[in-house]
From TrEMBL:
Keywords: Membrane, Signal, Transmembrane, Transmembrane helix. This is Transmembrane emp24 domain-containing protein p24delta3. It comes from the Eukaryota. Belongs to the EMP24/GP25L family. GO terms for cellular component: membrane. The keyword Transmembrane helix applies. InterPro entries: Emp24-like, GOLD_dom. SMART domains: EMP24_GP25L (SM01190). Residues 1-25 form the signal peptide. It is found in: Membrane. It is a single-pass type I membrane protein. The chain crosses the membrane at residues 155-177.
Amino acid sequence: MMRGGANVSGVLLLVFLCVLQGSEAVWLSLPASGTKCVSEEIQNNVVVLADYVVISDDHVHPIPTISAKVTSPYGNTLHNQQNVTHGQFAFTTTEGGNYLACFWVDGHKTGNAEISVNIDWKTGIAAKDWNQLLERRNLREADMRIVNEKTNARVAWFSIMSLGVCILVSVAQIWHLKRYFQKKKLI
């Protein structure tokens, strides 16, 4: 009985993590003829990123190609690709509403076997490329470190030069005062 409870909690945790990430992977089975669509209600000004790939279990024949079309709620075409086995689209929404991604098999495929398509659809914060962001941040930190090291070196040289000028002025003052007192015959 405990084992079943552990599975349920594991599944709930997995579902929670998927919902938390704002990303969903969808598997579509495309018939030899016809179209299948996936839609999502998205707010205005949200980043959307999706990857799709044809999965084929048939290792004898080449991977069949598909077409993909993504439209906005007002019917504007945001992405349109034909004769591909994989692809990617990215956009920032300009209007809130139901965004539609449709897929269909290109040309005539032999047999009536369905084709599987994996779609990884990310919206909002999940669509950000965190690796690139981290790389940019690391580059920025490296640039700041270089600037700090140069500034520290300049301050060190300025301090050494200031100390040298102070020593020279002190020596000049002592020499001048000594000559002055010798002329006045106080020394």
